[in-house]
């Protein structure tokens, strides 16, 4: 069954444009996603964070959940993410999960998410799974040096995600860095565009916006 929001619908008979923004942790993915969203805010557009699709771990204790490798593809419920993107392509609503970084678990509540003309999907592991990769109309890799990324991550995880300096460093060395080298960096080759240094690269963002607008024009 199709599902509509009261908002304007510009490409009624078309599948949504799916923009994937990937790159290492702290590279600036969310910042780039927000900049694109802000520049196209008059359109029927939304952001989906891949983080919302971390697997539910309610069967584990908090202590056990701290030991999960959150940078491995198996940490994500990729089947649910793909199912949701397919539903949105078919103009169906989804119940989008939400994630609690402090508890290392999915939240109980979900949000009803309506189909959009443009969806920005943002996350560390968008290009590793061929089926997901093939669904993306535009694939962007935000490329930022690892020393800059770890500094950003330390600040963010302590401030927003309830972590200690020691836990961020331990996690980075034991799982984040090895998984980045194994699953994130090698998939850069699949990107259509590589944006150096993330969110404040206005030239790259303007080029992206022009591309999205030209796809919209083709489809209306
Ligand atoms: N080009 C940039 N220069 C300086 N700081 C940036 C830049 N891009 C992002 N940041 C900052 O770095 C932090 C991480 O950025 P974010 O977009 O959340 O990264 P990601 O989503 O890849 O983890 C945020 O505090 C953000 O404001
Ligand atoms: N319980 C969790 C879940 C994920 N992480 C880390 O989040 C990173 C991905 O988010 P970004 O915004 O940084 O792209 C990823 O590197 C995981 O290590 C976590 O620490 N705890």
UniProtKB/TrEMBL annotation:
- Keyword set, alphabetical order: ATP-binding, Cytoplasm, Kinase, Nucleotide-binding, Transferase
User: According to its UniProt record, in which pathway does this protein act?
Assistant: Pyrimidine metabolism; CTP biosynthesis via salvage pathway; CTP from cytidine: step 1/3; Pyrimidine metabolism; UMP biosynthesis via salvage pathway; UMP from uridine: step 1/1
Coarse class of the primary localization is cytoplasm
Q: Which GO terms describe its molecular function?
A: ATP binding; uridine kinase activity
For the AAA+ ATPase domain, which residue ranges apply?
15-165
The record's annotation in CDD domains points to: UMPK
- What is the recorded name of this protein? Uridine kinase
What species was this sequence derived from? Isachenkonia alkalipeptolytica
């Amino acid at each position: 069954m199709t599902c509509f929001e009261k908002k304007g619908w510009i490409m009624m008979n078309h599948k949504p444009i799916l923009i994937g923004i990937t790159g290492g942790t702290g590279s600036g993915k969310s910042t780039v996603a927000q900049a694109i969203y802000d520049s196209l805010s008059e359109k029927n557009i939304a952001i989906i964070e891949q983080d919302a699709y971390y697997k539910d771990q309610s069967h584990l204790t908090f202590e056990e959940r701290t030991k999960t490798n959150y940078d491995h593809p198996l940490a994500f419920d990729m089947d649910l993410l793909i199912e949701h993107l397919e539903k949105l392509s078919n103009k169906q609503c989804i119940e989008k999960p939400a994630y609690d970084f402090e508890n290392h678990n999915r939240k109980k509540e979900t949000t009803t998410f309506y189909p959009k003309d443009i969806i920005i999907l943002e996350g560390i592991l968008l290009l590793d799974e061929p089926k997901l990769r093939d669904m993306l109309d535009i694939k962007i890799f935000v490329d930022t040096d690892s020393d800059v990324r770890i500094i950003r991550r330390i600040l963010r995880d302590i401030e927003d995600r309830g972590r200690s300096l020691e836990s961020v460093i331990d996690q980075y060395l034991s799982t984040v860095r090895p998984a980045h080298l194994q699953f994130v960096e090698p998939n850069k080759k699949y990107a259509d565009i590589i944006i150096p240094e993330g969110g404040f690269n206005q030239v790259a963002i303007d080029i992206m916006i022009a591309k999205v607008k030209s796809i919209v024009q083709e489809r209306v």
